[in-house]
């Protein structure tokens, strides 16, 4: 079925599968003076400050290599800042290289990070791994409720009929939805999406951004990185421009027109 | 500079030839008398191989079945031990010192060839196919363990980060990211190992570890080359059969997956 024909649930229906999130405008992520570099002489981020609140979609823009992905990984706890602090859901972020990460912060990487040899359903179920014992999950014995929740999530994203398909057999748009469903299975309060619609055509991109807007409307804090300034003007509550690792603009998009944003990025 | 390059190349080729000649002379392959004797013996040996003595086919078939059992059981046992050990050797899951210790253990197991492991187990458990099976299992563990942890290290880092992000444990990360992503390599290598083990098991009988090797050695020692030919032909037929079977499994399981992936790419 072509993606334009796939029915998409209303955001309210979609979020019925997601648990209650924090109250309006609770600070979900706070970064203060964050510095990070993969080697000490070339910092990728230089003293970044940012706040992301529940119910808000913050879009981070900047040219390639500007530090957007690094920012997302720091917010997720996959990287540790060399200076400064990261607070997630009012808790200092505990980052460990091999330990468990906070499941209430969902992360959709640029290439989605789906496991290609697993079915769409199994990929979505991995989003609920933190809620299942290691023994049961390793035997594939997910509780019935969790399976129902995963199926409902796929149904509401319009790909319930593809639940048993292996990910390598899905189209780009379908994979995107599986990645969203997996993220929502984490019952997140903060969702980080790293240029995850960049490879889609405008129609599919628009559909998925509408879904993301719906999630923000239901109280999730969203941080979405993008190159696409048109998306920013249409969907962002706030825009943050990163240039050479520094925040050069943090404003509502209506206060910064596209041309001005484009100039800020260069 | 331009002129020096061919001169260096020529000197290098001359040096390589000199080393080769020295090695050939040292192992006796430049001794014409010896070479002539060898050629005559090969001709005699070849003449005595024919016609094969088909009267021993029943005995040979029974021994080959035992060889197959050794190879199959040894491969499955080795696979089962290699899987957890390779996960332990992966720095993606465990701290570097633990992973390094597991890698060292696998390297040691792999260094000892199947035949030597078989001798060790003949000493420990006595003559017979049990020793051979354990020998095959140990070598398989060492070989597959290394291939497996290298396969995990080649898994897309983004997939690992995405699955780790859900807040799962190490065991869950292995079960839902590393193993499924590396599954095709694991299966392909296990099949290759089975083919290899069928061939390797054919000589385990030389050291009393069961299978067709016991008869191969016996026929050589008793100069019954016609019977040896029967055993060799039967072994060749089984090896070809296993190779075809393995290729068929590969085409059924792995090729459709790759085709579908390519079609989607």
Quickly count the helices of chain B: 10
Average pLDDT of chain B, rounded to a whole number, is 92
The profile of the biggest β sheet of chain A is:
6 strands, mixed
| Helix vs. strand class of chain A | alpha/beta
Fraction in helix of chain A: 25-40%
Question: What's the overall average pLDDT of chain A, rounded?
Answer: 85
The largest inter-chain interface, given as chain pair and residues per side, is: A-B, 40 and 30 residues
Radius of gyration of chain A, CA atoms, in whole angstroms = 18 Å
Which class best fits the helix and strand makeup of chain B?
Answer: mainly alpha
Tell me the strand order in the biggest sheet of chain A: 6-7-8-3-9-10
The count of DSSP E runs of length 2 or more, i.e. the number of strands of chain A, is 10
Which structural traits does this protein have?
heterodimer; A: 266 residues; four-stranded antiparallel β-sheet; 9 helices; 10 strands; disordered N terminus; B: 265 residues; mainly alpha; 10 helices
Record the SSE blueprint:
The complex is a heterodimer of chains A (266) and B (265).
Chain A lengths: L10 H5 L11 E10 L8 E9 L3 E5 L6 H9 L6 E6 L2 E2 L12 E4 L11 H7 L7 H5 L5 H13 L15 H14 L4 E5 L7 H16 L3 E6 L2 H7 L2 E6 L2 E6 L6 H8 L1
Parallel strand pairs in A: 3-8, 3-9, 6-7, 7-8
Antiparallel strand pairs in A: 1-2, 1-4, 4-5, 9-10
Helix pairs in contact in A: 3-6, 5-6
Chain B lengths: L3 H23 L5 H18 L7 H32 L7 H16 L2 H12 L3 H25 L3 H8 L5 H32 L11 H9 L3 H40 L1
């Amino acid at each position: 079925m072509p993606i334009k024909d796939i029915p998409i649930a209303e955001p309210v229906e979609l979020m019925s599968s997601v648990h209650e999130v924090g109250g309006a405008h609770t600070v979900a992520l706070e970064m203060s003076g964050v510095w990070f570099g993969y080697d000490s002489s070339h910092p990728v981020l230089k003293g970044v400050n940012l706040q992301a609140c529940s119910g808000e979609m913050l879009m981070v823009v900047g040219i390639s290599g500007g530090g957007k992905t690094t920012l997302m990984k720091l917010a997720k706890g996959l990287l540790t800042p060399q200076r400064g602090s990261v607070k997630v859901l009012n808790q200092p972020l505990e980052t460990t290289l091999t330990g468990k990460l906070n499941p209430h912060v969902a992360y959709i990487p640029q290439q989605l990070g789906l496991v290609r040899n697993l079915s769409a359903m199994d990929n979505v179920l991995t989003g609920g791994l933190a809620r299942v014992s290691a023994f049961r999950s390793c035997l594939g014995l997910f509780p019935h409720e969790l399976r129902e929740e995963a199926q409902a999530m796929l149904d509401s994203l319009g790909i319930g009929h593809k639940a048993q398909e292996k990910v390598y057999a899905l189209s780009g748009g379908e994979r995107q939805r599986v990645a969203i469903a997996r993220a929502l299975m984490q019952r997140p309060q903060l969702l980080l999406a790293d240029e995850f619609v960049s490879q889609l055509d405008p129609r599919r991109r628009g559909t998925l951004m509408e879904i993301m807007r719906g999630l923000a409307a239901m109280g999730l804090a969203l941080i979405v990185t993008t190159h696409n300034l048109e998306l920013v003007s249409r969907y962002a509550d706030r825009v943050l421009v990163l240039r050479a690792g520094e925040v050069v603009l943090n404003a509502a998009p209506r206060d910064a027109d596209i041309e001005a944003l484009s100039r800020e990025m260069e | 500079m331009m002129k020096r390059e061919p001169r260096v190349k020529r000197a290098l080729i001359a040096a390589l030839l000199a080393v080769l000649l020295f090695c050939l002379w040292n192992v006796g392959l430049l001794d014409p008398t010896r070479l002539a004797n060898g050629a005559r013996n090969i001709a005699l040996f070849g003449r005595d191989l024919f016609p094969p003595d088909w009267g021993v086919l029943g005995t040979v078939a029974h021994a080959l079945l035992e060889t197959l059992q050794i190879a199959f059981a040894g491969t499955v046992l080795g696979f089962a031990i290699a899987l957890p050990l390779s996960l332990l050797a992966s720095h993606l899951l465990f701290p570097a010192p633990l992973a390094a210790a597991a890698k060292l253990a696998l390297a040691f197991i792999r260094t000892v060839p199947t035949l030597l492991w078989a001798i060790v187990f003949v000493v420990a458990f006595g003559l017979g196919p049990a020793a051979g099976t354990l020998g095959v299992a140990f070598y398989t563990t060492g070989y597959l363990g290394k291939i497996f942890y290298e396969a995990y290290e080649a898994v897309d880092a983004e997939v690992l980060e995405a699955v780790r992000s859900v807040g799962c444990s190490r065991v869950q990360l292995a079960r839902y990211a590393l193993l499924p992503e590396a599954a095709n390599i694991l299966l392909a290598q296990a099949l290759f190992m089975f083919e290899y083990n069928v061939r390797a098991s054919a000589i385990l009988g030389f050291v009393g570890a069961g299978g067709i090797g016991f008869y191969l050695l016996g026929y050589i020692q008793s100069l019954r080359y016609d019977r040896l030919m029967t055993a060799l032909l039967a072994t060749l037929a089984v090896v070809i059969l296993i190779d075809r079977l393995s290729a068929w499994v590969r085409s059924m399981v792995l090729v459709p997956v790759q085709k579908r992936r390519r079609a989607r790419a």
